[in-house]
Amino acid sequence: MTADFPAAGQVFDYHFLWKWQAERGETEGRKKRPSCVVVVVTNQAGQHVMFIAPITSKSPAPGRTALEIPETEARRARLETDVPLWVILDELNADVLETSYTLEERSPRGSFGAAFTDAILHEVQRLRTAGGLKLSRRT
């Protein structure tokens, strides 16, 4: 992969669009926030679709699925380490790399370690299978 090709576990600053915003007709994320690439897949047109999870300092509401980011992982991803942070796993954006206007900076701020990235992917896959994954398509 090339240096500007996102990989699972990398953290970028991204205009994440929450599902409730998309349902109201909004097409732009209201603010740039750290977000984690969960997985990149190739669609039938040969384009690369990134599935992106938001990172927040706001404690997840009851009923939400999130992983708290350990301090070591926050350092690896070049995130704040003086506040608790979570990766929200039950809500993702799907964005096509080749046409993305929301992934402005193609260089990641940092990256999670392999074990933490695997935990994120495993939980997202579980949610998808159980029908508990909300997706906002940015395509």
Q: Can you describe what's shown?
A:
- This protein has 139 residues and is of the alpha+beta class.
- The protein has one domain: SH3 type barrels, CATH 2.30.30.
- It is 20% helix and 30% strand.
- Strands 1, 2, 3, 4, 5, 6, 7 and 8 form an 8-stranded mixed β-sheet that branches.
- The chain is globular, with a radius of gyration of 14 Å.
Largest sheet report = 8 strands, mixed
Task: Tally the structural domains.
Answer: 1
Number of helices: 3
Number of strands: 8
**Residues in β-strands, percent:** 25-35%
Mean pLDDT: 90
CATH class value: Mainly Beta
Order of helices and strands: EHEEEHEEEHE
If you compute it from the alpha carbons, what radius of gyration comes out, rounded to the nearest whole angstrom? 14 Å
Structural class: alpha+beta
Q: Outline, from the CA principal axes?
A: globular
CATH topology: the name is SH3 type barrels
Give the N-to-C terminal Cα separation: 22 Å
CATH architecture descriptor: Roll
How would you describe this structure in keywords?
alpha+beta, Growth inhibitor PemK, 139 residues, SH3 type barrels, single chain, 3 helices
Short summary of the structure?
20% of the residues lie in helices and 30% in strands.
